[in-house]
Design goal:
- By secondary structure, the protein is an all-alpha fold.
- It has a single domain, classed as Amino acid/polyamine transporter I (Up-down Bundle).
- It contains 19 helices and two strands.
- α2 packs across α14 and α6 crosses α18.
- 57% of the residues are buried.
């Protein structure tokens, strides 16, 4: 069997019937979790940054492309999540279809995605809170030597995450209501200040990237074809689409809650597709309003939405946007911490990580050990490392996991045609193959440096797998 040994699907299904995690979540809780993790830095900062640097007003089109690719991947997640509802999501799907080594790679990628995502978001949260309350920037700003604000919010949210999944869900749902209300306010008021002249040309003409261009920051697809590095134009729209895909990452976290959902075969697909649809509409609407209010060349990259409303004299909305950012980023971190705990729990239960990580708290029914360890590592990163350009790393980790999930759909259909499938991807295997190719193409539009970092992370992960995981795997023991 070796590194290609697979986990029996019946074993996975038996786990979710007799597992230690508590079944307390409904479909509406999953939609709240999904919106909670998806809407964050993408809507409050990334739209403005990508409009100014890569796509202009066509950043709206970039969000549409990102939504289509995410939607294709979400269909694949929905089929697997409703068929094999379990903690571990893509990690477990790969284990049951493609083999142990692929499962390890995906689990390792997902830990990267959610840990770096939480660290980046916690630093952003700290900065927004400093702006909102006038806190000292030497402790709460991006330039702080030790970002105390980021550490404090991670500590508080870790307590909530360990206390129980239902408490985490209620906390997240309250924050989601505030966040969505602020987004709707931005749309409802901002639309009256949109100028058609700011939206033309919709796709700015392509132009050379400038003197700062270098091969490390050139998209892999351009470097591979020997093309000159450029900004804007259609290439800029596609590059922006690959980067803003970061804004859609998170819906896959819902698949990790299969063992804590009351009716997973129904509610998981409702949560995944419902949350992604809501967020896509908000992203597209807000990005269109933003670029319509302000010429894309004048967008402030630090606080694009707040600056846009300041430019039209609506200063009172800036404070509300900061409040929305603080609450929005809080819910993102909450779900990321919960997700890291479930992925680590699944890997520990299978023996690929230390087995004590695959246990739950006797009172709260949560994977407390792996959640706390993950939170400590995230807090250290957030406290001392000025995290820049790492949204690309989150995107590449998520896209690679989605490719594996898309491949797993037809593989599992062939291996287990008898398996109950409450939801099926239409036109399989064509649509899953299209989803995998679309994710790969977006990956190729990320820069060379991101690929180098990703390769280094994979190499470290494989070293750990062959040194520890392969030897301690429960399948190997059997």
């Amino acid at each position: 069997m070796g590194i290609m040994r697979t986990l029996d699907v019946d074993t996975v299904l038996a786990r979710q019937e007799t597992g230690d995690l508590k079944r307390r979540l409904r479909g509406r809780d999953l939609v709240g979790f999904g919106v909670g993790i998806i809407i964050g830095t993408g809507i409050f900062t990334l739209a403005g940054v990508e409009a100014k640097t890569h796509a202009g007003p066509a950043v709206t089109l970039s969000f549409v492309i990102g939504a289509v690719v995410a939607g294709l991947a979400a269909l694949c997640y929905a089929e697997l999540a409703s068929s094999v509802p379990t903690a571990g999501s893509a990690y477990t799907y790969a284990f049951a279809t493609l083999g142990e080594v692929f499962a390890w790679i995906i689990g390792w990628d997902l830990l990267l995605e959610f840990a770096l995502g939480a660290a980046v978001v916690s630093r952003g949260w700290s900065g927004y809170l400093a702006n909102l309350l006038g806190l000292p920037p030497q402790w709460f700003g991006e330039d702080a030597t030790v970002n105390i604000g980021a550490v404090l919010i991670i500590a508080v949210l870790t307590v909530v995450a360990v206390a129980g999944i239902k408490q985490s869900s209620l906390f997240t749902n309250v924050l989601v209501v505030v966040k969505v209300a602020v987004c709707l306010l931005i749309l409802g008021i901002g639309i009256f200040f949109v100028k058609g002249s700011n939206l033309t040309p919709f796709i700015p003409p392509s132009r050379p990237a400038g003197e700062d261009a270098d091969v490390l920051h050139q998209p892999v697809v351009e470097a591979g074809l020997g093309l000159e590095q450029s900004a804007f134009g259609l290439a800029g729209v596609l590059t922006a689409a690959a980067i803003v895909f970061f804004a859609y990452t998170g819906f896959e976290a819902l698949a990790n809650l299969g063992e804590e959902t009351r009716n997973p075969r129904k509610d998981l697909r409702v949560g995944i597709l419902g949350a992604l649809g809501i967020c896509a509409l908000l992203y597209i609407g807000v990005s269109l309003v933003l670029t319509g209010m302000v010429p894309f060349t004048d967008i402030d990259e630090g606080a694009p939405l707040a600056d846009a409303f300041d430019s039209v004299g609506m200063h009172w909305i800036s404070a509300l946007i900061s409040l929305g950012a603080v609450t929005g980023l809080t819910s993102v971190m909450m779900v990321e911490l919960v997700t890291i705990g479930r992925i680590g729990f699944a890997m520990g239960r299978d023996g690929l990580l230390p087995k004590k990580l695959g246990t739950v708290h006797p009172r709260w029914g949560t994977p407390h050990r792996v959640t706390i360890i993950g939170a400590v590592l995230i807090a250290l990163l957030a406290a001392f490392v000025p995290i820049t350009e790492l949204s690309d790393m989150v995107s590449i980790g998520a896209l690679s996991a989605m490719i594996i999930v898309a491949i797993a759909v037809p593989v599992l259909r062939r291996k287990r045609p008898d398996l109950q499938r409450p939801f099926t991807v239409p036109f399989s295997p064509v649509l899953p193959i299209v989803a995998a190719l679309a994710c790969l193409y977006l990956m190729l539009n990320l820069d060379v440096l991101t690929w180098i970092r990703f390769a280094a992370w994979l190499a470290l992960g494989l070293l750990i797998y062959f040194a520890y995981g392969r030897r301690h795997s429960r399948l190997r023991e059997k």
